């Protein structure tokens, strides 16, 4: 799933290539992906892309005041095409293509654009056409952005104070902190040397400061690594930069211990026992507790 660093890089990528260009058309292939009907998606035709923003994991193309907002969800991705002038008309089907955004051709007749694709059978990619991004429910309910100046250790202390949620779940909750998903929550907790099952409200001031530092540093480093990369290269860059996520059975680069995994019904987490749980192994079952 694309998380804050990848979505920020995609926003940067689109700013360089789409801003200033005219929208030719937005072709919706997977009709379930389009979550709004007024304004219609056809209203984007002829408008100029004036800006690209990120809201948590949402991408937002400002087209003369009308916004094309989309969320790639777990299995979605953005595929840039340098020239769509010869592309075949899109037709609803079983393929991964969900939406095609066509930009007006330049003087040489080259018409670039991008496609939103989604693998798998669980179709959760979502597209909205709105006058204000806050009209998108997922955007309106977002918590603070962890890379914003106002996200300070004091702000994090207010977030975790009194919260009985396990810290792993808190970090993934978009209504609490925007942009962190399963992968980077694993990375943040490893950097903070903290168990994923630690109860948020039990964090000391020192642990909160360490967690804040881990959040900001982990995300900023990932954003910096992704800076300037083409959209097609972001997945590989993300994978190469991960220290614990999806590395179960491999050696921890920090201490040399074996990275462990806890599996749930629809997800899993990875952690290092030496770095994070004082050498104890977490039970691999839902509602895990430390093994005695």
From TrEMBL:
EC code(s) of this entry: 3.2.2.23, 4.2.99.18
Catalytic activity annotation: Hydrolysis of DNA containing ring-opened 7-methylguanine residues, releasing 2,6-diamino-4-hydroxy-5-(N-methyl)formamidopyrimidine
SMART domains, alphabetized: Fapy_DNA_glyco, H2TH
Residue ranges of every copy of the FPG-type domain listed in the record: 243-277
CDD domains according to UniProt: BaFpgNei_N_1
UniProt cofactor(s): Zn(2+)
GO biological process terms, semicolon-separated: base-excision repair
Protein keywords: DNA damage, DNA repair, DNA-binding, Glycosidase, Hydrolase, Lyase, Metal-binding, Multifunctional enzyme, Zinc, Zinc-finger
Formamidopyrimidine-DNA glycosylase catalytic domain: residues covered: 2-93
Superkingdom, taxonomy of origin: Bacteria
A Pfam family matched in the record: Fapy_DNA_glyco
Single GO MF descriptor: 8-oxo-7,8-dihydroguanine DNA N-glycosylase activity
Annotated family: Belongs to the FPG family.
Protein name as annotated: Formamidopyrimidine-DNA glycosylase
């Amino acid at each position: 799933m694309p998380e804050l660093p990848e979505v920020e890089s995609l926003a940067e990528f689109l700013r360089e290539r789409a801003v200033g260009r005219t929208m030719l058309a937005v072709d919706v292939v997977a009709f379930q992906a389009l979550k709004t009907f007024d304004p219609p998606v056809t209203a984007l035709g002829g408008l100029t892309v004036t800006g690209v923003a990120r809201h948590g994991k949402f991408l937002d193309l400002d087209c003369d005041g009308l916004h094309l907002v989309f969320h790639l969800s777990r299995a979605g991705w953005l595929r840039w095409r340098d020239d769509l002038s010869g592309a075949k008309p899109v037709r609803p089907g079983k393929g991964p293509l969900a939406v095609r955004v066509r930009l007006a051709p330049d003087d040489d007749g080259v018409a670039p654009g991008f496609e939103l694709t989604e693998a798998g059978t669980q179709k959760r990619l979502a597209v909205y056409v709105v006058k204000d991004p806050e009209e998108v429910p997922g955007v309106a309910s977002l918590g603070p952005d962890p890379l914003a100046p106002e996200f300070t250790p004091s702000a994090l202390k207010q977030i975790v104070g009194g919260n009985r949620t396990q810290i792993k779940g808190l970090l993934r909750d978009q209504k609490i902190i925007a942009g962190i998903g399963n992968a980077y929550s694993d990375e943040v907790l490893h950097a903070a040397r903290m168990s994923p099952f630690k109860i948020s409200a039990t964090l000391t001031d020192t642990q909160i400061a360490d967690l804040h530092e881990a959040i900001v540093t982990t995300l900023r480093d990932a954003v910096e690594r992704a800076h300037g990369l083409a959209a097609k290269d972001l997945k590989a860059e993300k994978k190469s930069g991960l220290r614990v996520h999806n590395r179960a059975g491999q050696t921890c680069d920090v201490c040399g211990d074996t990275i462990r995994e806890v599996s749930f019904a629809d997800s899993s987490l990875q952690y290092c026992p030496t770095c994070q749980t004082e050498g104890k192994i977490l039970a691999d079952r839902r509602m895990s507790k430390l093994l005695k």
